[in-house]
Amino acid sequence: MPETSHDNTSGRRPLRWILSRPSYVLLSGEAAGVPLATPSAYARAWAGLMLLSLGWGGVWVGLWGGAWRLVARSDVLFAPVAVVLGVMLLGPYRRAVTALVGLILGNEPTERMTGTAALVAVVALALLALRADPYHHELSLPTPLAWLRPTFEAQRVLLLMPVWGAWAMLISVQFARPSPAAGAAVTAFARGCGPVAAVLALTVPGGLTWLYFHFLGGWELALIGAVVIAAVAAGPLAARRTGGLTHDALRGANVAVQVVFILAYLAVI
């Protein structure tokens, strides 16, 4: 009886497809050896970048909830925070974190290690400051839509952080030009993501922020305004350090705005 061969790569095709998407490459800075899309595909990557970041926020929400349940639903959030930070540093944002530290401190190894540790400590302390209790005084949603709004404060913040970070990349290309050394992908992304796309995309993090925190009595609008201002400023400031927008400048702006979002939220609650 003749032997039949099995394609061992078939199960990896969905993963390879995701890793080769322009939105993932823009976010992570790596493609894991898979064939890359043509530069022209990056002109349409802004929509995929928002969707990918929303999905990644959902992953953080799930990991936080799972870790919280494993520690008997304790009010002490050490386990959930450790899990989320670990995935953040080992996942697509690994290079984005080091890019931000490099933009601020330069590329000297010791300074980058110290800066990365300081950034992780700030985010960890901010996440630990979030509460593990549900909200009770807010607009009710129809049952079929209830899944759109996580119950707990920490989960809502975690869902919104990467979405605001992605929007920072979209708005950055409106106020800074790509560096001559940025490559065809960044240039195509900047060309394809115009002001209309950036404004339309803002409805996602802006709308969700209002939906999640409307009970703050107007402070949610201050929160949105602060993050928008930070996002508008982050790209041009990063571009000044790199001689124009580059992958590192875009990813650095992404992480910087995520940090601003969580700190601004803690300031208004």
How would you describe this protein?
With 269 residues, the chain is mostly helical. It has one domain. The chain has 11 helices and no strands. It has helices at 13-19, 22-28, 45-70, 78-90, 94-105, 109-128, 153-175, 184-192, 195-213, 219-242, 247-268. The chain is globular, with a radius of gyration of 19 Å.
Tell me the number of helical segments per DSSP (H or I, 4 or more residues long): 11
Global mean pLDDT: 84
Dominant shape: globular
State Rg. 19 Å
Q: Could you tell me how far the N terminus lies from the C terminus, measured between alpha carbons in angstroms?
A: 71 Å
Q: Which regions contain 5 or more consecutive residues with pLDDT less than 50?
A: 1-11
Structural class: mainly alpha
Q: How would a textbook summarize the main sheet?
A: none
Give the ordered list of helices and strands.
HHHHHHHHHHH
Count every beta strand, where a strand is a DSSP E run of 2 or more residues.
0
Range of helix content: 55-70%
The share of residues in extended strands comes to: under 5%
Can you tell me the number of structural domains?
Answer: 1
Throw out a few tags for this protein.
about 270 residues, 11 helices, about 70% helix, globular
SSE arrangement:
Elements: H1 13-19, H2 22-28, H3 45-70, H4 78-90, H5 94-105, H6 109-128, H7 153-175, H8 184-192, H9 195-213, H10 219-242, H11 247-268
Helix pairs in contact: 2-3, 3-4, 3-7, 4-6, 5-6, 5-11, 6-11, 7-9, 7-10, 7-11, 9-10, 10-11
Describe the structure concisely.
The longest helix is centred in the first third of the chain and has 26 residues, at 45-70.
